[in-house]
Amino acid sequence: MRASLRLAFPLAAFATLVGCAGYDFGRARRPDGSYDLEKLKADLKSSGRTSMSDGSWIPLIHFASTSFGPTRSDGPAGYTLSKMSAYGPLFFVGSREEHFFAADGTHLEDRAIDWAGWGTLWFDREERVETKRGERISTDWRVGLVFGSQGVRYTDTAPPAR
């Protein structure tokens, strides 16, 4: 009996570290896989919280998190949906996505970054911003802090001038 108590305590402590249950973001997905922003906004309001999140964590092996709440920046008032996943000791390999929306639900901007070796071996960043003439896409990638490239391009979606 005493040996089982010694084993039960570390297992219980580990179990508390493994998951961080919260909001079920699967309930707010559309059939095409995108998120239903209106449902997220309604669920956030009904929860009475300042933000909603869900995640899991297995120490030194895996971390995953999704969160939704008001945008916390100097930008326009709105909402941010962010997702992060990382693997290996101390987030050695991972990715992060952030999607920004205006208060009325208009999509404003996306940011994404992938990395390996904490960004020293490889990273790839992309930022997409909606403009009046289309989308501005900024990219930045590096390999081994030596090779890489930065660039900005625009996708012209405005109607042609007559």
User: Segments where pLDDT lies below 50 for 5+ residues?
Assistant: none
**Radius of gyration using CA atoms only:** 20 Å
Number of strands: 9
Range of strand content:
over 45%
Task: Give the mean pLDDT.
Answer: 83
* Overall tally of domains: 1
Lateral arrangement of strands in the main beta sheet: 1-2-3-4-5-6-7-8-9
Order of helices and strands: HEHEEEEEEEE
Rounded to the nearest angstrom, the distance between the terminal CA atoms is 85 Å
Characterize the biggest β-sheet: 9 strands, antiparallel
Number of helices: 2
- Summing up helix and strand content along with how strands pair, one would put the structural category as alpha+beta
Share in helix: 10-25%
Give the overall shape, derived from the CA principal axes.
flat
Folded structure, characterized:
Helices cover 17% and strands 48% of the residues. The mean pLDDT is 83. It has one domain. The radius of gyration is 20 Å and the shape is flat. It has 162 residues and is an alpha+beta fold. It has a nine-stranded antiparallel β-sheet with strand order 1-2-3-4-5-6-7-8-9.
State the main characteristics.
2 helices, nine-stranded antiparallel beta sheet, alpha+beta
Q: What is the topology?
A:
Blueprint: H1 2-18, E1 19-20, H2 37-47, E2 52-58, E3 62-70, E4 78-87, E5 93-102, E6 107-116, E7 122-131, E8 134-143, E9 147-156
Antiparallel strand pairs: 1-2, 2-3, 3-4, 4-5, 5-6, 6-7, 7-8, 8-9
